[in-house]
Design goal:
138 residues, two-stranded antiparallel ribbon, 59% helix, alpha+beta, Helicase, Ruva Protein, domain 3
Length: 138
């Protein structure tokens, strides 16, 4: 197996970049199994922590809602996560950005308002350095 094939194996199994895979392979003296173990210890935790943070953000974001209102009447209500995805979409595409701007200007001229409802505030118990603490959701 060539060095590039070994690096590709590490990247595919661990979801890491070429640099990280090359460093792990060099540290393991070219042994793919040892490199997998070392890289999993080093980078696996980071990926698991990032996944946990994303899940927590999605859980908290699931309570928040965006409401488009005209006067006292709610015209549309969507989860804040969907709204955030829409904003990211408009940043990725100039056509969507123009469409979003036209929609925003139309809404402003017709007296629509946007409300952000963060849901019911509740206290969450979290473990912090061996002691219990409560904090409100963000």
């Amino acid at each position: 197996m060539t060095e590039l094939e070994k690096i590709d194996v590490l990247r595919a199994r661990l979801g890491i970049g070429y640099r990280e895979a090359k460093e792990a392979l060099d540290e393991a003296g070219g042994d793919v199994i040892k490199a997998l173990i070392k890289a999993e210890e080093k980078y696996g935790r980071t990926r698991d922590e990032m996944t946990a943070r994303i899940k927590e953000w999605a859980r908290r974001g699931g309570r928040s809602r965006l409401r488009v209102k005209k006067g006292d009447k709610t015209v549309m209500e969507i989860p804040a996560v969907v709204g955030a995805a829409g904003v990211l979409g408009t940043l990725a595409s100039s056509q969507l950005a123009v469409l979003g701007l036209v929609g925003l200007l139309t809404a402003m001229t017709r007296n629509y308002t946007l409300e952000i409802d963060e849901g019911e505030p509740t206290a969450h118990a979290v473990e912090e350095k061996g002691r219990r603490a409560t904090r409100p959701p963000i």
